[in-house]
Amino acid sequence: MIPEGSLLAAHDLRKTYGATPALDGASFSVHPGEVVAVMGPSGSGKSTLLHCLAGIITPDSGTITYAGRELSAMSDAERSALRRSDFGFVFQFGQLVPELTCVENVALPLRLNGVKRKAAERTAREWMERLEVEDTAGKRPGEVSGGQGQRVAVARALAASPKVIFADEPTGALDSLNGERVMELLTEAARSSNVAVVLVTHEARVAAYSDRDVTVRDGRARDLEHAV
Amino acid sequence: MTLLDSRTAPAAGQDRPQPPSRGAATLRDLGLGIRFAAAGGREGWIRTLLTAVGVGLGVALLLLASSVPHMLDERSARDQARSETRISGSPDTNAPKSDTSVVRINTTTEYHDRTIEGYLMRADGTAPVRPPGLDRFPAADEMAVSPALKELLAAPGNELLRERLPYEITGTIRDAGLRSPGELLYYAGSDTLTPASGGHRIAGYGDTRAGDPLPPLLIVLTVMVCVVLLVPVAIFIATAVRFGGDRRDRRLAALRLVGADIRSTRRIAAGEALFGAVLGLLIGLGFFLVGRQFVGAVEIWDVSAFPADLVPDPLLGVLITVAVPLTAVLVTLVAMRSVVIEPLGVVRRGRDRGRRLWWRLLMPAAGLAVLGFTGRVDEYTYAPVNPYLIATGAVLVLVGLALLLPWLVEACVNRLRGGPVPWQLATRRLQSSSGAASRAVSGVTVAVAGAIALQMMFAAMNADFNRMTGQDPSRAQFAGYSEDVTGEAATAAIEQFRATEGVEVVIGSVQAYASKPGVYAEDDVPPTTSVTVGTCETLRELARIGACQDGDTFVVHPPGDKDMSQWVDQAARKGKVVEIGSGYGKPLRWTLPADSPTVQGRKDPMGDTHYGIMATTGAIDASTLPGAQITAQIRVDKSVPDVAEHVRNTAARIDPGMRFVTLDSVERDRQYASIQTGLQVGASVVLLLIAASMLVSQLEQLRERKRLLSVLVAFGTRRTTLSWSVLWQTAVPVVLGLAVAVAGGLGLGATLAWMIHKSVSDWWLFLPLTGAGAGLILLVTALSLPSLWRLMRPDGLRTE
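Above: the input entities. Below: the structure tokens describing the complete assembly.
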């Protein structure tokens, strides 16, 4: 059932919110360093699939395997630890802690992993430089533009050296120019670091940065590789 | 045809409405604000309800406070209506009888630390006067009881009380005859009571003697208690009005986008605040009306009140009705001065400039100046005290402290750097917006500062109100006295005490007066001293007696008092006759043995020094003494259950009118104790109210950050990390607030102590109150954790 060599794979996931089914037998897989776009219309279950894959929510049924470990068999604390150490996240908006400076935001996952403040901020600055937002280091999120904020979020997602980055509509709140720059930087940085990216989007322009597309419709993911 | 096809444009402004006048625009905007508050959907309702409930709680407390004068007046009126009018010349046996006069004796007793007021009454004629609340005069061995006493008597486990009051209950005392619903009171009938056996004759009820004026120190204390309890309530109301302010500002920004100007947004906000405050007034009135129904079940200051007693003072009621909505609008408008509501969002201003200190110091300084100007209060001359000036000074100091707090919190948190993630999250949050935290804590600061100042005053006044009695409870825990009893009855009484369960020692003596026989002119006083008869053991407790055998007698001098010793010797002449009696009836002639040694007196467990003639029971048969008085000082085995009640039952059996007291080394003034209890209860209620306000503010902030919390959870943030962050976020401002409270409270307390000519005896009094404040931190954090954990669920990430 698990595609060979896959880092993260899900099989037959089902999840309902009340009477509304969000996932109805979805399957998915991603390899190390691979960028996979999860596409589909609004309300199709894309974000729910991403949240299940990241261990943020647990599916009602189905299996999720990460690096040979069954996610659904893990406790909440174990899944939280996994998210701190192996996963990174980029969301559409409202993700940066408004009171922390940008460099402190980027350093936050490292600090949550127990890295000392100075070392964490040194690493954070390196990633910010790579994502071309080093000049925002001392500013608060409210003082930077949307594109800069999103690049800070990407830097934060990459700072803790994750194996997988989950990006939920990362360019949804940006204009096309900024959106494309964010996608370029995200995919380049991920590929160069052999980080897998699960990219939820409904824009074909954004999905074009991926290696592979998965379409979710009515809670079912049509994962071409998985079907093979 | 479209407009573009038209050759001519429509006539400009032909149908355009005229801009409304300023008054109309104000009304329209206020109305719009009211509509937002009343029909703003679920979010709007939550905000309005939070404000209204907050304001309502404050209003209910204010209404309660404004009802206190009426409550005290009613209570005092009922008290006066039942106070007896004694017949001139009473309580002697010659007081004239009438068809309506009554002989009665106070038989008040204590049961399990509660006072049960009681009277034994005997009618002289056929139409005896009745105390208020009584439908008929109780016949012999019957009694009318208050509802609370009836309940107590009927409750299981109170057999000893039923034994003490062995009368048949034939009536219930109505409210008109009670000070408060919880009062324990009874009137029992007797057919044997006479003035000779201790009763006194009364003509009626409703003695109109004026009560004692409140001592000046108590006026200062009372004013301070009111200020200390009510200023935090006012601050709480001001805080409640700002609940949900951020959300409202965002809504106003949306209105700016569609063309509302800044003035309009302010008026709309004022309309919203007005609605919340008026709704709060109504809710507060509701809380008050519902709460007063249960007021009878609450006992503060040893008493409770009838619901009908709680009627707000009309003037104060009007003031509350006007001031609360007005305050709400003013607070809202002032709060909006610190933000700029733009069409694309809300910008906070003044961050770079920082808060200024100098003007914040003006108010407490002015307060201290007013107190200084008021001058010192003289406790002895009963010179009039101006409570308004004292209240103004104290209010200025306390409100000034609340104004100092935002500056201090901002100045301190801006200097906080580094630290672990929870600390960093908390301090950064406080750095970005310390105003809300300061507002929430300002109530704690004021309440604690005021309470510290009051406690210091209490400590300084301690010696005035808590008298060292000189009693020694290690030698005896109870004392009973009965006067004008026969010697026979007196000796029997002492034996009855000795036979009571749990009694270890009875220092029981029978006293009478002994005087030098002779014929004296009318204005001459014959040399007189006391004769005390008891066992050797008893006499040793009263005088420094060495060897003693039954049949011995002693002449006892008061230690260190030569004049009195000489006076004793003039009456107690060794080998000569003395006349023993009370002045009525035939005295007993008795010869003081010539070999009676002279010894020094000593203090008995009551703290009284005895002197005169002391005789063992073998020397004088106590049962033959006319007009004797029993004194029984009783030591008990405290391990015997209900030993105090057994002893009191014996006392009641011997003589229902026996004065029976519990010995204590310190006697606390009842008014002082009442005010202290009131302060403690009030401070607790206020602190809880403030905790509620802090909790609402905390929950509101958490709800605002729902999405951010979900994001933090998404990348693996531990629950403990965020919980600690919430704790620090509460703790930092509270600790700073407590620091201001301690400094301000000690300053105010020292000033007040100076005003009343006292020195501060204990500078460490702030510790328990500071501890209570610290308890608030834990309480608020603990109560906000469930909400935090609920918000940490990933639902917040869902956008569809």
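Note for the figure: Residues 8-227 of chain A form a domain with the Rossmann fold fold (CATH 3.40.50.300).
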